[in-house]
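Subject: for your reference before the review

Hello V.,

The reviewers asked for a structural picture of the protein, and I figured it would be easier to keep everything in one thread rather than splitting it across files. Below is the amino acid sequence we used in the manuscript, unchanged from the supplementary table.
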Amino acid sequence: MPPPVKLVIIGGGPSAFYVASRLLSLLPLGDPISPPLRVHMYDRLWAPHGLVRYGVAPDHPEVKNCTNKFDATATDPRFRFFGNVNVGNTPLNSIPHALHLPLSSILKNYSHLLFATGCTLPTLHPAIPPSAHCIDAMSLVHWYTRHPSQPPPPALDKISHVTLIGNGNVSLDVARILLTSPSVLRQYDVPEHVLEVLSRSTVKHVSIVGRRGPLEAAFTTKELREMMNLPEASMIPIEPSLLALPSGVTPTRQQRRTLELLQKGSKNPPGSTPKTWSLDFYRSPTSLAPQSSASASDMANLTLAHTRLDPATSRAVPTGETSTLPTSLVITSLGFHTDPETTFFDPSLSHLRSFAGRITSAQGLPFKNIYASGWAANGAKGVLASTMMDAYAVAGTIISDIVPSTDEVKNNSALSVPATGTASDELLNPRPDLDALPAEIIHGIRDGMITQYHDWKVIGAEEVRRGETLGKERERMDWEEAQSFLALERAHS
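And here is what came back from the structure prediction:
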């Protein structure tokens, strides 16, 4: 039998759970070829599931069905989850109540380590930094999903025009939330305090700005179709010449569908709705400045460089022409990157330094038994299905290190790393106590500062119960509510 394995996973989102699920299923309890195994998962957020809880749009409940699989994974007695724990070398300022666990405590207590920490910071636009008139999309998404970082609500009752920079799915999610009546959103997983702010919104138009053209737009056909079918909004028609297919270009199936939808336009004719939206292609922001007029104090001027597509590189290049777009609020949605404070962060990649699922040194040599998966390893790209496939491959790589002769692994592991040695001596503990926990975690559990998976199940059930009384999917708790609720539950048990 192989030696015991005690894997720690840092991160509690989809990639983390998919890796855990795969490992526990391929190394079943009681199987003679399976080593004694423990999988401990730590997340800086008090609730599990990462972007599924705090990133998926509330009106897309079907995307959250993957949590059923995660719940099943958590029933394995070899698995444990510890939420509200920030693993790293510095405390987490954005979530001050998270318990700080130094990485050194992890290294002393575990034999294998997986980083599934995702990309937790927004990519900002260099020409338009955050200001009174400019915020990032992540802060808005975190507001309407009640993220533990608790960003302030936007002053939607004081603005009429919103401009989104970037035309990926996150931009369309935000636009859809802003343009949909709270009476429609109420049935979904939208907190009451968010609905209250949305009910006072005076937003009338949302501009979605992209530096390239419709063929290069990052949104999916599904998201675009949802925008076209908004019940209380209509799309400003796009100049037909922008939708003409360039000569010599053969569109993909998705590109063809996108062009067809854009040519057809929204279900509601322009001018027939109280709210409108537009897709502004071939525009790139260069500056944002408040208007000087006292009568328009809530407005700013967004200067946009006009662009064209360089046929050689497919990059947007300026034409020399500019225009000004008066707007109340600019929301940048330009992707995400890994926190630079994370160990093994590579600034040239904006994510962790890894190859084929293994964390590597600056010289490209793999660290023994240290891995990365999901966005932490690959950057912020892909959907849940691609995240799952990547996680399964990384799980295969981990198993190949644990049980090298396993046939299943040969079909599921990531690409093999060239046999060039390892980066250094072992950083982890090769013979840890399988069931021991770091002292900080023992104290945190005792003090009610850490949530375990059974705590989450109790909280989740209560959120659903509260939602049912309001006629909605669930009513979310914040950390203080969850902590108080759990304390009462423990006192009564």
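For the response letter, the relevant points are probably these. The first helix runs from residue 14 to 26. Residues 101 and 440 are 7 Å apart (CA to CA).

Happy to draft the paragraph if you're swamped.

O.
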